[in-house]
Backbone:
């Protein structure tokens, strides 16, 4: 049913991987939420599934598959348009999950001199200002 809706291979080069295998790999990723690199080997290389997913999104293949499945379900009266639900599930994430600073984390080092103007810092010296002034560094 779906095979006629998938793009056919055109051009030269290596024959494409089995479309059904690639489609199953893409559906596995979408169902599990796993990263592409964790795709089981039985679906072929993750790169193939990833690139095919993107290509099918750009050329409208996913929309054609959706419309065909919806039409088939309507013919079978498997869709009840009187009942529907919108799922707005969301999970609140902590600020730290987005990369915010956590309590107790040290502040990042702040540059006091721009790299573009190193002369603004003055001459380099291996001794501190307190030592040059004749005081012990602890009395500063």
Residues:
């Amino acid at each position: 049913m779906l095979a006629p809706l998938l793009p056919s291979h055109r051009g030269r080069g290596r024959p494409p991987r089995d479309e059904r295998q690639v489609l199953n790999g893409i559906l596995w990723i979408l169902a599990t939420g796993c990263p592409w690199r964790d795709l089981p080997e039985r679906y072929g290389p993750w790169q193939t599934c990833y690139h095919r997913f993107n290509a099918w999104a750009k050329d409208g293949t996913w929309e054609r598959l959706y419309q065909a499945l919806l039409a088939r379900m309507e013919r079978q009266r498997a869709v009840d348009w009187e009942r529907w639900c919108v799922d707005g599930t969301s999970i609140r994430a902590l600020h730290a999950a987005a990369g915010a600073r956590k309590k107790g984390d040290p502040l990042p080092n702040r540059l006091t001199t721009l790299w573009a103007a190193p002369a603004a810092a003055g001459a380099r010296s291996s001794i501190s200002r307190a030592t040059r002034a004749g005081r012990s560094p602890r009395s500063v």
The radius of gyration is 30 Å.
